[in-house]
């Protein structure tokens, strides 16, 4: 049986007394799916992710997460739902009084994982994202792209059931972006449902996952973007 991880029905969101920034949003994300979230700057991508990780309540409509309607779920149950969601924030939100290692280890420590396993997994993951030599550094001493990788590592270290990533490759070069996408693909194969907001059309084409497209606050679920058509430049015979 296919489980629905996130369901939105006729959802609207406005900030304060402003206009609705998301309108009539209905979408369904099944367990194990991987979606790119695309749309122009200011279209509402971060707002949609915030609804999904329960940082905002919708102004109207229904949201369910892991099968629980969040409007009727008790306040004491919401943290348990949130703990199953990994989030990569656009602005990273790393803790600067802790080392890179401890930032990534934090969700495992909260989950009471044995310190020996924490050391093994965090070291492996930080090595994978190219930060082996920066494990004891404070986040503020790292570059933007390095901080972004710490934020991604922290979000995936506990293999969350749902990963919401807001432009997780926005600050790294193309080669590293592809490497990080491979990390997300591995996580997805292990069962994590992923929504990744991105402006990088090259990645969207290369990795060919279905899209959630936002334009002017309206959302449409669409199929993968195919690789760009390459004209056949080989010329044979005479030009007629
Ligand atoms: N806290 C807020 N208060 C008021 N308006 C907000 C707030 N956050 C976002 N908005 C507005 O909501 C709209 C959607 O913003 P959002 O950040 O969701 O877009 P986005 O698609 O993620 O943009 P970008 O690609 O630039 O990150 C914008 O018009 C923005 O000004």
UniProtKB/TrEMBL annotation:
Subcellular location: Cell inner membrane; Cell membrane
InterPro entries named in the record: AAA+_ATPase (IPR003593), ABC_transporter-like_ATP-bd (IPR003439), ABC_transporter-like_CS (IPR017871), ABC_transpr_LolD-like (IPR015854), Cell_div_FtsE (IPR005286), MacB-like_ATP-bd (IPR017911), P-loop_NTPase (IPR027417)
Domain ABC transporter: from-to ranges: 6-239
GO molecular function, a single term: ATP binding
Any one of the GO CC terms: plasma membrane
A biological-process GO annotation: cell division
Membrane topology value: Peripheral membrane protein
Tagged with keyword Methyltransferase: no
Protein keywords: ATP-binding, Cell cycle, Cell division, Cell membrane, Membrane, Nucleotide-binding, Transport
Pfam families, per database record: ABC_tran
Main location: membrane
Source organism, top-level taxon: Bacteria
Quaternary structure and partners: Homodimer. Forms a membrane-associated complex with FtsX.
PANTHER family membership: CELL DIVISION ATP-BINDING PROTEIN FTSE, IMPORT ATP-BINDING PROTEIN
Record function comment: Part of the ABC transporter FtsEX involved in cellular division. Important for assembly or stability of the septal ring.
Family according to the record: Belongs to the ABC transporter superfamily.
The protein's name: Cell division ATP-binding protein FtsE
Annotated source species: Terasakiella brassicae
The gene coding this protein: ftsE
């Amino acid at each position: 049986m296919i489980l629905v991880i996130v369901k939105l029905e006729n959802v609207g969101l406005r900030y304060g007394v402003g206009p609705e920034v998301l309108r009539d949003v209905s979408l369904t994300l099944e367990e194990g799916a991987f979606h790119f979230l695309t749309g122009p700057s200011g279209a509402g991508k971060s707002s949609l992710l915030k609804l999904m990780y329960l940082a905002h309540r919708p102004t109207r409509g229904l949201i369910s997460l892991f099968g629980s309607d969040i409007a009727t779920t008790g306040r004491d149950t919401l943290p348990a739902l949130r703990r199953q969601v990994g989030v990569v924030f656009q602005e990273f939100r790393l803790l600067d009084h802790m080392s890179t290692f401890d930032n990534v280890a934090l969700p495992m420590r909260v989950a009471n994982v044995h310190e020996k396993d924490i050391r093994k997994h965090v070291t492996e993951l930080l090595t994978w994202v190219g930060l082996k030599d920066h494990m004891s550094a404070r986040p503020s001493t790292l570059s933007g792209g390095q901080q972004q990788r710490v934020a991604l590592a922290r979000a995936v270290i506990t293999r969350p059931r749902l990963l919401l990533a807001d432009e997780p490759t926005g600050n790294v070069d193309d080669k590293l972006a592809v490497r990080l996408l491979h990390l997300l693909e591995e996580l997805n194969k292990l069962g994590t449902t992923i929504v990744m907001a991105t402006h990088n059309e090259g990645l969207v084409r290369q990795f060919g996952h279905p899209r959630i497209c936002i334009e002017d606050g309206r959302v449409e679920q669409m199929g993968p973007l195919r690789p760009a058509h390459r004209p056949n430049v080989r010329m044979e015979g005479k030009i007629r």
